[in-house]
Write a structure and sequence with these properties.
By secondary structure, the protein is mainly β. The protein contains three helices and 23 strands.
């Protein structure tokens, strides 16, 4: 190694996960086999986000800087033979977002050290990454309480001349989850035709948007469960469970280039009927003690209804009641149009399935963007009544060890290569920091759910 035998950066207490507003301190250790002349020894700490339109490319198309600080720990002189230690300390801004690594972009934090030598001599540098975790408290997310529900009615043609109608309704037990929690999904399928349907399926989807001049969308299936068919003229209720694996949080607060969204997609293989249920994934789970009271919720719902009635047109639009091939509505029956606004109604308990305050499904352009690109790999073996999870498919690897990326071994839902996670994941705890280097669990041996999911015959009511 020549003159320089050792040149490394270490953090105090071997800490690698930090929070915004904390200070990061450590030492730079240099071990020399012989004396070395230098003009300066500097230490730099920076954090930034880079995005690109090519998979796993580091030639960033756009960048966003969060902080960049440097300090000189030694001036011009000669470093003697032996070991030298130089301490450093930096303050992390409170606006720094959570670390992230995806196919088309990364949020990176690192400390670098430089030995600036005289002209014609070799310069030396060392680098060490660290990870940022900005906890997302689901209790602070607006309109997070209650269930998320949606419904879709679609007409289709079979046997060239016959037509049928399919009514699909679905609901999740909550709108916000943390890793290791279970989504309780209930779906109702009414087959108003003379043809049997294909298998039912429910998928936990992740959609990452990289905000460029022409945005890039990375859509992947995190987990998928599959049910049976619905016979002609029958109505079936399907209940399923989906485990939330270690995933990045829904909101990267402080980052304007990367947007993460999650939703549950419920669909039929045949005919092609689908709806989506948007959910939030955070680090601090919902606390039932902080849930607004029913009276407050009812008052808010009544105020919203009164405001909507006051802004309504006096004459209803005649075209809004015409039949269409596809219609999306809330599970709560809609009221007939009223000729004129009425006074605010008395406060009533908030409907369990209501979603007037929050859209029950992504807008039309959301679904087109999510479903219009390259479709994910649907080759899941044994999907029926079981959840298969590929830990390598999770796009949460907030590290800088680019040379440690590995190929996926399990079934992946991404259309292109994905880097394997090599960094700590947020835990389900409220305030505790995650233990460094916790890899995603192996779900083939997971103990979730504690009770076996119901069989298809048990969960179906004909």
């Amino acid at each position: 190694m020549g003159k320089l035998q050792e040149f490394e950066i270490s953090f105090d207490k071997d800490k690698v996960v930090y929070s915004p507003g904390e200070s990061i301190s450590g030492t730079v250790k240099i071990k020399l086999a012989q004396a070395l002349q230098c003009k300066a020894i500097k230490v730099n700490c920076n954090g930034f986000c880079g995005i690109t339109s090519k998979v796993n490319d580091t030639a960033w198309t756009m960048e966003e800087q969060y902080f960049n600080s440097s300090v000189s720990v030694a001036d011009k002189g000669t470093l003697k033979l032996g070991e030298h230690t130089f301490p450093f300390k930096f303050l992390i801004p409170e606006t720094a977002p959570t670390s992230f690594e995806g196919n088309y972009g990364r949020i990176i934090y690192r400390v670098r050290a430089f030995i600036d030598t005289p002209r014609f001599s070799k310069d030396y540098n060392a680098e060490k990454p660290f990870y940022m975790l900005r906890l997302l408290n689901l209790n602070e997310v607006p309109d997070i309480w209650g269930t998320c529900s949606s419904a879709v009615t679609q007409q289709f043609t079979y046997m060239l001349v016959k037509t049928g109608t399919m009514v699909l309704k679905a609901q999740t037990d909550m709108r916000g989850y943390t890793p290791s929690q279970i989504i309780q999904l209930t779906a109702s399928i009414h087959n108003q035709s003379g043809k049997n349907t294909g298998n039912m399926a429910a998928s936990l989807m992740q959609r990452v948007t990289y905000e460029m001049k022409k945005p890039v969308y990375d859509l992947r299936t995190i987990a998928e469960v599959e049910g049976g068919i619905v016979k002609a003229g029958k109505e079936v209720e399907w209940k399923e469970q989906i485990i939330i694996p270690p995933l990045p949080q829904s909101s990267l607060v402080g980052c304007d280039l990367i947007k993460i969204e999650y939703y549950v997609k419920v669909s039929l293989k045949s005919p092609d009927v689908m709806l989506t249920l948007p959910i939030q994934i955070g680090n601090v789970s919902l606390d039932k003690k902080l849930r607004p009271s029913k009276k407050a919720a009812a008052a808010a719902a009544a105020a919203a209804a009164s405001s909507a009635a006051a802004e309504a047109e006096p004459v209803p639009d005649a075209t809004s009641d015409t039949a269409t091939s596809i219609s999306v509505s809330d599970t709560t029956p809609s009221l007939p149009p009223r000729p004129a606004p009425k006074p605010a109604p008395r406060p009533t308990p908030r409907p369990r399935n209501s979603s007037h305050n929050s859209p029950s499904a992504p807008p039309a352009d959301y679904q087109q963007g999510a479903e219009g690109g390259v479709h994910m790999n649907d080759g899941y073996p044994n999907k029926r009544q079981s959840q298969l999870v590929s830990p390598n498919a999770f796009s949460y690897a907030p590290g800088l060890f680019f040379n440690q990326n590995q190929q996926q071994n399990g079934p992946s839902a991404v259309s292109s290569g994905t880097t394997e996670a090599s960094a700590p994941y947020p835990t389900a705890g409220a305030t505790a920091m995650p233990t460094p280097h916790i890899l995603p669990p192996e779900y083939s041996s997971s103990s979730y759910p504690q009770e076996a999911p119901p069989t298809y015959h048990e969960s179906c009511n004909t």
